[in-house]
């Protein structure tokens, strides 16, 4: 029996620093309703979908910093999103800043959750590959201080059985690292959801930054193809507080082909009919890990006399 997930990517335009949670959740609900009206079972929101990208600033006041984080999920301001999802019978992926009290201390993570059609949280992920810096860098118009405001995720790259398939999550910079997809691929992932807030000047090198859009799609297409999985990449884009951010949210098939792409830098819904069994055909042929993948060969290369081990 064919397993279809009608999926939507809910791209968001800029969120200003002064925009309230209530206003932002209203925008998310409007996008959710549009996705449902277009027949979607699942809508993928972006990274840090509830606030502006606050790691672009040095924030010294702890109370001000805490205001960008969610202490519970759902909380009073986000509950309407869960209520609407349950009413519409649509699932969603949501990225947000998480403030957790664990081990007697505050812990801060760049987090995403997967919510099923009943409004129940079925999966949680914390971003592993944190880009940027811990301290402000001289000469930069906009800072990128994720290492200052978040810990690396401690939940690994899990998968969850939901929407009649095997679902995975990652966030933004994770998409550039092949091990992100491979760890989930080894668990049979069939759809990877990710949100991103990516500025055009993220490296500070013009030759690299000029290829940001190309590299954005390249990493997701390669991850999809090499691991026989659908990938849904959702951007927060446009000019947010003076920072220009990448758009072109996409839905990528297990073939590596882009089957839907946003064409604005504003709030926009794109959709695709995702056949989860399409990935199965790739896993049974080109990327049959059990038949063709040779992990022992990698170890042998390192163990050979004179071989140079990979950098730690």
TrEMBL record:
Q: What is this protein called?
A: N-carbamyl-D-amino acid amidohydrolase
> According to the lineage, what is the superkingdom?
Bacteria
Species whose genome carries this gene: Pseudomonas sp. KNK003A
The record, for Pfam families, names: CN_hydrolase
The stretch of residues making up the signal peptide is: none
UniProt KW keywords = Hydrolase
Name the SUPFAM superfamilies for this protein: Carbon-nitrogen hydrolase
Check the record and name the PROSITE patterns matching this protein.
CN_HYDROLASE
Domain CN hydrolase: residue ranges: 5-278
* One MF term in the entry's GO annotations: hydrolase activity, acting on carbon-nitrogen (but not peptide) bonds, in linear amides
């Amino acid at each position: 029996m064919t397993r279809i997930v009608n999926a939507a990517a809910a791209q968001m335009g800029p969120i200003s620093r002064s925009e309230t949670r209530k206003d932002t959740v209203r925008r998310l609900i409007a996008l959710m309703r549009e996705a449902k009206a277009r027949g979607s079972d699942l809508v993928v929101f972006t990274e840090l979908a509830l606030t502006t990208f606050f790691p672009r600033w040095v924030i010294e006041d702890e109370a001000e910093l805490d205001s960008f984080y969610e202490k519970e999920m759902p909380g009073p301001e986000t509950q309407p999103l869960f209520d609407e999802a349950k009413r519409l019978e649509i699932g969603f992926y949501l990225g947000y800043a998480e403030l957790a009290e664990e081990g007697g201390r505050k812990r801060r993570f760049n987090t995403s959750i997967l919510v099923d059609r009943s409004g129940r949280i079925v999966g949680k992920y914390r971003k592993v590959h944190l880009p940027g810096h811990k301290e402000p860098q001289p000469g930069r118009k906009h800072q990128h201080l994720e290492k200052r405001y978040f810990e690396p995720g401690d939940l690994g790259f899990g998968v969850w059985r939901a929407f009649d398939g095997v679902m995975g999550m990652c966030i933004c910079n994770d998409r550039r690292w092949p091990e992100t997809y491979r760890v989930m691929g080894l668990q049979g992932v069939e759809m990877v959801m990710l949100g991103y807030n990516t500025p055009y000047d993220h490296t500070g090198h013009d030759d690299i930054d000029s290829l940001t859009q190309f590299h954005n799609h390249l990493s997701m297409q390669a991850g999809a193809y090499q691991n026989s999985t659908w990938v849904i990449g959702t951007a927060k884009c446009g000019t947010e507080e003076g920072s220009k951010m990448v758009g072109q949210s996409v839905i990528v098939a297990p073939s590596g082909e882009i089957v839907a792409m946003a064409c604005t830098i504003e709030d926009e819904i794109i959709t695709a009919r995702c056949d989860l069994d399409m990935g199965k055909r790739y896993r049974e042929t080109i990327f049959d890990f059990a038949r063709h993948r040779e992990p022992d060969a990698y170890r042998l290369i390192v163990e050979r006399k004179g071989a140079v081990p990979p950098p730690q």
